[in-house]
Amino acid sequence: MADHQRIHPVPEPEQEPPVQKPTVPLVPRGSFSSEKGDPEKQQEPVPLRRRTIPYYPPLKPPKRRCCSCKKCLCCTCCLLFLMIIIIGALAAAFYFVFQPKIPNYSVDSMRISQFSFNNDMTLLFATFNVGITARNPNKKIGIYYESGSHLSVWYTGVKLCEGSLPRFYQGHQNTTVLSLDLSGQTQNVTELMQALQVDRQRGSIPLNLRAKVPVKLKVGKLKLMKWNFLVKCRLDVDSLSANNAIRIRNSDCKFGFRL
Protein backbone atom coordinates (compact mmCIF):
# COMPACT_ATOMS: atom_id res chain seq x y z
CA MET A 1 0.00 0.00 0.00
CA ALA A 2 2.87 2.22 0.56
CA ASP A 3 3.73 1.84 -2.97
CA HIS A 4 0.59 3.46 -4.08
CA GLN A 5 1.26 6.80 -5.75
CA ARG A 6 -0.48 9.91 -4.55
CA ILE A 7 -2.41 11.85 -7.09
CA HIS A 8 -2.27 15.61 -6.74
CA PRO A 9 -4.47 18.00 -8.75
CA VAL A 10 -2.57 19.75 -11.38
CA PRO A 11 -3.73 23.30 -12.25
CA GLU A 12 -5.02 23.79 -15.72
CA PRO A 13 -2.87 25.92 -17.93
CA GLU A 14 -4.19 29.41 -18.40
CA GLN A 15 -5.73 29.99 -21.74
CA GLU A 16 -4.22 32.85 -23.63
CA PRO A 17 -6.64 35.33 -25.23
CA PRO A 18 -7.10 34.85 -28.88
CA VAL A 19 -4.96 37.09 -30.95
CA GLN A 20 -7.03 39.47 -33.05
CA LYS A 21 -5.94 39.56 -36.58
CA PRO A 22 -5.50 43.00 -38.12
CA THR A 23 -8.46 44.08 -40.13
CA VAL A 24 -7.59 44.28 -43.74
CA PRO A 25 -9.54 46.87 -45.74
CA LEU A 26 -11.89 45.26 -48.17
CA VAL A 27 -10.89 47.69 -50.82
CA PRO A 28 -7.24 48.29 -51.38
CA ARG A 29 -6.13 51.80 -50.85
CA GLY A 30 -5.87 53.76 -54.07
CA SER A 31 -7.91 51.29 -56.14
CA PHE A 32 -11.06 53.46 -56.31
CA SER A 33 -12.92 56.15 -54.32
CA SER A 34 -16.20 55.42 -52.65
CA GLU A 35 -19.08 57.85 -52.55
CA LYS A 36 -18.20 58.86 -48.98
CA GLY A 37 -14.43 58.96 -49.62
CA ASP A 38 -11.67 57.23 -47.78
CA PRO A 39 -12.88 55.99 -44.38
CA GLU A 40 -9.53 56.85 -42.85
CA LYS A 41 -9.83 60.41 -44.07
CA GLN A 42 -13.39 60.75 -42.79
CA GLN A 43 -12.13 60.96 -39.27
CA GLU A 44 -10.15 64.08 -40.08
CA PRO A 45 -12.07 67.38 -39.54
CA VAL A 46 -13.41 68.82 -42.72
CA PRO A 47 -12.66 72.52 -43.06
CA LEU A 48 -15.82 74.65 -43.08
CA ARG A 49 -16.54 76.68 -46.13
CA ARG A 50 -17.40 80.32 -45.60
CA ARG A 51 -20.56 81.29 -47.33
CA THR A 52 -20.57 84.70 -48.83
CA ILE A 53 -23.71 86.60 -47.74
CA PRO A 54 -24.72 89.36 -50.12
CA TYR A 55 -24.71 92.81 -48.54
CA TYR A 56 -27.83 94.83 -48.71
CA PRO A 57 -27.72 98.44 -47.53
CA PRO A 58 -30.13 99.12 -44.66
CA LEU A 59 -33.40 100.68 -45.64
CA LYS A 60 -33.96 104.22 -44.55
CA PRO A 61 -36.64 104.51 -41.88
CA PRO A 62 -39.83 106.14 -43.14
CA LYS A 63 -40.21 109.79 -42.42
CA ARG A 64 -42.32 110.49 -39.40
CA ARG A 65 -43.23 113.98 -40.47
CA CYS A 66 -46.23 112.77 -42.41
CA CYS A 67 -47.48 110.75 -39.44
CA SER A 68 -47.02 113.70 -37.07
CA CYS A 69 -48.91 115.98 -39.46
CA LYS A 70 -51.78 113.52 -39.64
CA LYS A 71 -51.89 113.25 -35.85
CA CYS A 72 -51.86 117.03 -35.50
CA LEU A 73 -54.63 117.39 -38.07
CA CYS A 74 -56.67 114.70 -36.34
CA CYS A 75 -56.26 116.40 -32.94
CA THR A 76 -57.25 119.77 -34.43
CA CYS A 77 -60.37 118.29 -36.00
CA CYS A 78 -61.31 116.62 -32.71
CA LEU A 79 -60.87 119.89 -30.81
CA LEU A 80 -62.97 121.79 -33.34
CA PHE A 81 -65.66 119.14 -33.21
CA LEU A 82 -65.64 119.29 -29.41
CA MET A 83 -65.88 123.09 -29.44
CA ILE A 84 -68.81 122.93 -31.88
CA ILE A 85 -70.60 120.48 -29.59
CA ILE A 86 -70.00 122.69 -26.53
CA ILE A 87 -71.13 125.86 -28.31
CA GLY A 88 -74.19 124.07 -29.66
CA ALA A 89 -75.08 122.79 -26.21
CA LEU A 90 -74.70 126.28 -24.69
CA ALA A 91 -76.77 127.84 -27.48
CA ALA A 92 -79.51 125.24 -27.03
CA ALA A 93 -79.56 125.82 -23.26
CA PHE A 94 -79.67 129.61 -23.79
CA TYR A 95 -82.54 129.28 -26.27
CA PHE A 96 -84.69 127.03 -24.09
CA VAL A 97 -84.10 129.07 -20.94
CA PHE A 98 -84.42 132.63 -22.28
CA GLN A 99 -86.36 132.05 -25.54
CA PRO A 100 -84.81 134.99 -27.47
CA LYS A 101 -86.86 136.80 -30.11
CA ILE A 102 -85.84 139.27 -32.80
CA PRO A 103 -86.70 142.95 -32.10
CA ASN A 104 -89.17 144.65 -34.43
CA TYR A 105 -88.75 148.06 -36.05
CA SER A 106 -91.09 150.13 -38.18
CA VAL A 107 -91.16 153.63 -39.69
CA ASP A 108 -94.50 155.15 -38.73
CA SER A 109 -94.20 158.77 -39.79
CA MET A 110 -92.03 161.14 -41.81
CA ARG A 111 -92.03 164.90 -41.98
CA ILE A 112 -89.78 167.05 -44.17
CA SER A 113 -88.88 170.45 -42.82
CA GLN A 114 -86.38 171.29 -45.57
CA PHE A 115 -85.92 170.00 -49.09
CA SER A 116 -84.45 172.75 -51.28
CA PHE A 117 -81.66 173.52 -53.74
CA ASN A 118 -79.19 176.36 -53.80
CA ASN A 119 -79.26 179.11 -56.44
CA ASP A 120 -77.21 177.32 -59.08
CA MET A 121 -78.98 173.99 -58.42
CA THR A 122 -75.77 172.16 -57.48
CA LEU A 123 -76.54 171.43 -53.80
CA LEU A 124 -79.55 169.85 -52.14
CA PHE A 125 -80.34 170.57 -48.48
CA ALA A 126 -82.64 168.10 -46.72
CA THR A 127 -83.93 167.84 -43.17
CA PHE A 128 -86.21 164.95 -42.23
CA ASN A 129 -88.00 164.08 -39.01
CA VAL A 130 -88.61 160.34 -38.84
CA GLY A 131 -90.79 158.53 -36.32
CA ILE A 132 -89.52 154.99 -35.58
CA THR A 133 -91.11 152.42 -33.30
CA ALA A 134 -88.81 149.84 -31.67
CA ARG A 135 -90.36 146.78 -29.99
CA ASN A 136 -88.59 144.33 -27.69
CA PRO A 137 -90.72 141.16 -27.48
CA ASN A 138 -88.37 139.28 -25.12
CA LYS A 139 -89.52 138.41 -21.60
CA LYS A 140 -86.07 137.87 -20.11
CA ILE A 141 -83.74 139.95 -22.32
CA GLY A 142 -83.21 143.73 -22.16
CA ILE A 143 -81.47 145.89 -24.77
CA TYR A 144 -78.94 148.67 -24.11
CA TYR A 145 -78.72 151.02 -27.12
CA GLU A 146 -75.17 152.37 -27.05
CA SER A 147 -73.65 155.50 -28.57
CA GLY A 148 -72.16 155.42 -32.05
CA SER A 149 -75.32 154.58 -34.00
CA HIS A 150 -75.85 155.84 -37.54
CA LEU A 151 -79.05 156.36 -39.56
CA SER A 152 -79.37 157.60 -43.11
CA VAL A 153 -82.05 158.12 -45.78
CA TRP A 154 -81.21 157.27 -49.40
CA TYR A 155 -82.86 157.97 -52.73
CA THR A 156 -81.67 156.32 -55.99
CA GLY A 157 -78.37 155.43 -54.34
CA VAL A 158 -77.77 159.00 -53.12
CA LYS A 159 -77.67 159.80 -49.40
CA LEU A 160 -80.04 162.63 -48.59
CA CYS A 161 -79.60 163.01 -44.82
CA GLU A 162 -78.24 161.22 -41.75
CA GLY A 163 -78.44 161.18 -37.96
CA SER A 164 -78.17 158.92 -34.89
CA LEU A 165 -80.19 157.31 -32.09
CA PRO A 166 -79.96 158.43 -28.48
CA ARG A 167 -78.62 156.12 -25.77
CA PHE A 168 -81.33 154.36 -23.79
CA TYR A 169 -82.30 151.06 -22.21
CA GLN A 170 -85.27 149.09 -23.47
CA GLY A 171 -86.73 146.69 -20.94
CA HIS A 172 -88.59 143.40 -21.31
CA GLN A 173 -91.54 143.44 -23.70
CA ASN A 174 -91.18 147.19 -24.11
CA THR A 175 -92.26 149.41 -27.01
CA THR A 176 -90.35 152.67 -27.55
CA VAL A 177 -91.31 155.41 -30.02
CA LEU A 178 -88.42 157.56 -31.26
CA SER A 179 -88.59 160.91 -33.05
CA LEU A 180 -85.31 161.44 -34.91
CA ASP A 181 -84.03 164.47 -36.82
CA LEU A 182 -81.88 163.71 -39.86
CA SER A 183 -80.15 166.35 -41.98
CA GLY A 184 -77.61 166.59 -44.79
CA GLN A 185 -76.58 168.08 -48.11
CA THR A 186 -75.95 166.44 -51.45
CA GLN A 187 -73.80 167.56 -54.39
CA ASN A 188 -74.20 166.86 -58.14
CA VAL A 189 -77.95 166.47 -58.01
CA THR A 190 -78.74 166.75 -61.74
CA GLU A 191 -79.56 163.07 -62.18
CA LEU A 192 -81.39 163.04 -58.83
CA MET A 193 -83.70 165.88 -59.98
CA GLN A 194 -84.54 164.05 -63.21
CA ALA A 195 -85.40 160.83 -61.35
CA LEU A 196 -87.42 162.78 -58.78
CA GLN A 197 -89.57 164.42 -61.49
CA VAL A 198 -90.39 161.01 -62.97
CA ASP A 199 -91.34 159.53 -59.57
CA ARG A 200 -93.50 162.57 -58.70
CA GLN A 201 -95.51 162.09 -61.87
CA ARG A 202 -95.89 158.42 -61.01
CA GLY A 203 -97.07 159.31 -57.51
CA SER A 204 -94.67 157.04 -55.59
CA ILE A 205 -91.15 157.94 -54.43
CA PRO A 206 -89.00 155.04 -53.11
CA LEU A 207 -86.74 155.76 -50.14
CA ASN A 208 -84.36 153.55 -48.17
CA LEU A 209 -83.62 154.00 -44.49
CA ARG A 210 -80.51 152.28 -43.14
CA ALA A 211 -79.54 151.99 -39.48
CA LYS A 212 -76.50 150.56 -37.72
CA VAL A 213 -76.97 150.53 -33.96
CA PRO A 214 -74.46 149.12 -31.42
CA VAL A 215 -76.29 147.38 -28.57
CA LYS A 216 -75.59 145.20 -25.54
CA LEU A 217 -78.01 142.53 -24.40
CA LYS A 218 -78.90 142.12 -20.73
CA VAL A 219 -79.64 138.47 -19.95
CA GLY A 220 -80.85 138.20 -16.39
CA LYS A 221 -78.29 140.24 -14.46
CA LEU A 222 -75.51 139.60 -16.98
CA LYS A 223 -74.57 142.21 -19.59
CA LEU A 224 -73.22 140.57 -22.72
CA MET A 225 -70.73 141.77 -25.29
CA LYS A 226 -71.51 144.47 -27.84
CA TRP A 227 -73.42 143.63 -31.02
CA ASN A 228 -74.45 145.68 -34.04
CA PHE A 229 -78.11 145.74 -35.02
CA LEU A 230 -78.60 146.33 -38.76
CA VAL A 231 -81.97 147.63 -39.90
CA LYS A 232 -82.98 148.28 -43.52
CA CYS A 233 -86.38 149.76 -44.33
CA ARG A 234 -87.82 150.34 -47.77
CA LEU A 235 -90.42 153.12 -47.91
CA ASP A 236 -92.77 154.40 -50.57
CA VAL A 237 -93.95 158.00 -49.98
CA ASP A 238 -96.22 160.16 -52.05
CA SER A 239 -94.00 163.30 -52.16
CA LEU A 240 -90.87 165.02 -50.85
CA SER A 241 -92.26 168.51 -50.52
CA ALA A 242 -91.23 170.54 -47.50
CA ASN A 243 -93.76 171.47 -44.80
CA ASN A 244 -96.34 169.07 -46.18
CA ALA A 245 -97.87 165.97 -44.65
CA ILE A 246 -96.06 163.03 -46.21
CA ARG A 247 -97.98 159.81 -46.39
CA ILE A 248 -96.08 156.53 -46.17
CA ARG A 249 -97.76 154.12 -48.55
CA ASN A 250 -95.61 151.10 -47.87
CA SER A 251 -93.01 150.22 -45.25
CA ASP A 252 -90.95 147.02 -45.07
CA CYS A 253 -88.11 146.65 -42.56
CA LYS A 254 -85.53 143.85 -42.33
CA PHE A 255 -83.40 143.12 -39.30
CA GLY A 256 -79.92 141.60 -38.97
CA PHE A 257 -77.03 141.59 -36.54
CA ARG A 258 -73.29 141.00 -36.44
CA LEU A 259 -70.40 141.30 -34.00
From TrEMBL:
GO cellular component terms, semicolon-separated: membrane
Compositionally biased intervals (Basic and acidic residues): 1-11
Predominant location: membrane
GO annotation terms (biological process): defense response to other organism
A Pfam family hit: LEA_2
Domain Late embryogenesis abundant protein LEA-2 subgroup: 133-233
Topology of this chain in the membrane: Single-pass membrane protein
Keywords assigned by UniProt, alphabetized: Membrane, Transmembrane, Transmembrane helix
Annotated spans, Disordered: 1-47
Entry's transmembrane regions: 72-98
Subcellular location: Membrane
Family matches, as InterPro entries: LEA_2, NDR1-like
PANTHER family for this protein: LATE EMBRYOGENESIS ABUNDANT (LEA) HYDROXYPROLINE-RICH GLYCOPROTEIN FAMILY, NDR1_HIN1-LIKE PROTEIN 6
Protein name listed in UniProt: NDR1/HIN1-like 4
Lineage of the organism: Eukaryota, Viridiplantae, Streptophyta, Embryophyta, Tracheophyta
Encoding gene, per UniProt annotation: NHL4
